[in-house]
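Quick one: C-alpha cells for this chain, please?
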Amino acid sequence: MWTFSCPIIAYGDYALEYIAQIQGKKAFIVTDKNIVSLGLLKLVTDQLDAVNIKWQVFDEIEPEPSLATIKKGGVAVGLYQPDWVIGLGGGSCMDAAKAIIILLVQPDLDPDAIIASDTYNFREKAKLMAIPTTSGTGSEATWAIVLTDADNQRKIGLGTTECTPDVAILDPVMVEGMPPQITADTGMDAVCQAIEGYVSTWGTSITEGPGLVAAKQAFQYLPKAYKDGKDLEARKEMQNAAILAGLSFGNSMAGLGHSMGHALGAMYHIPHGRTVGLFLPYTMEYLINGSEETTAKYAEIACFCGVASGSNLECAKALVAKVRSLLKEINQPLSVEDCGIDKTQYEASIPDLIDRALNEVMTMTVSRVPGVEDLGKIFRYAYEGKHINF
C-alpha cells in the first residue's frame, strides 16, 4: 500500500486571506529575525488579528536549524499551548515548525529521535500551517524535516507523515522581494526535487505527474524570476513549481543529487539548493551511463519540457545539458571548485563526504546505487567540472 500526503493549498493573489477561515484561538509562529525585519511577519499577524486569534513569535530559527534551537522552541511552544503552529519562512523555518509541534505533545523527546514509524498525534492539540517565503524547498508540502547536528556537522533527515502541514499558503507577496541569489538557490532545489522525484525508484504514476509539471514550470520561470523579482507571473509559477516538486519527491523520494549535496552543504556550510543543484547534472550522467530505465524517464522529462526529441539517450543527455545551461544562466556553481573550496582540503574530506552520502536513504532510491568507489569518483569529477564517463 502507498499513501500520498498533501496539505490544503491556498495560492495566488491574496492567499493570506485564507487565514480568516481557520478555527482557533492561539497561534505560535516559527520564523527567523530576517522575516520579521522584512515586514513579512506583520502580513500574517494582521490576518490573525482580524479574526481575533492571539499569537506568539519564536524568531530564533537559523539556516539549517540546530537541535538546540528546536529544543528551545519546544520549551516555548509548551509554555504557550497554541492550537496552530505556523512555519513562516524558508525551508528551515517550516522544518523547524514541524519538529517543534511534535515537542508540543512530547516535550521530553530529543528532536533527532523523531522517526517515521512513530505516532505523535499532535493534532489532538494543534494543527500545522506552512507559509513559504522562498520558492524551492517544497517543505510546505512534505513531511520531511532536515535539522543539523552542529556538534558533528551533519544534517539529519527526520519526519513522519503526520508532519505534512494541514494548510500551505502560497501568496506571491511573500516572495516578491526575494533576492536573486536566494531565488537561484531555492529554485535549483525545486528543479532537483522535480527531476529526482520523477525518476525515484519509489515513485508511482501518482507522484510522477506533479514532478513533470514542476520541472517544466521551473525551466521556464526560474530564469525570469531570477532576472526580475517583480515579475509576479514568474513568482507565482515558481511557487507552484516548488510545491508540485515537493508533492512529487515528498511522496516518492529524492536521489543522489540530494544525498551528495547534503553531505557537501553540511560540511562546508553551503546553502542546500546550491549544493543539490551543483551535483544534479553529475548524478544524472552517472545514472544515464548505467540505467536504461532512468535514461527513459529523463527522456520523458526532456520531451514534456520541450528540451529535445529523438532517442532516449539523446533526450536524456539534452536534459543534462539543459540543467547545466540553467545553472549558468542563474549564476550557480557548475563545479565544487566554483564554490571556493580548496582542492587539498576537499580531497582530504572525500572519505567523510562518501560516508555521509552513503548514510542518506536517497542514495538507495535510484536505479543505479553507487558504492564507495563510484561516489568518490563523482565527488572528484564534480570538483573539476568533468563529465561523468563511467
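The mean pLDDT is 95.
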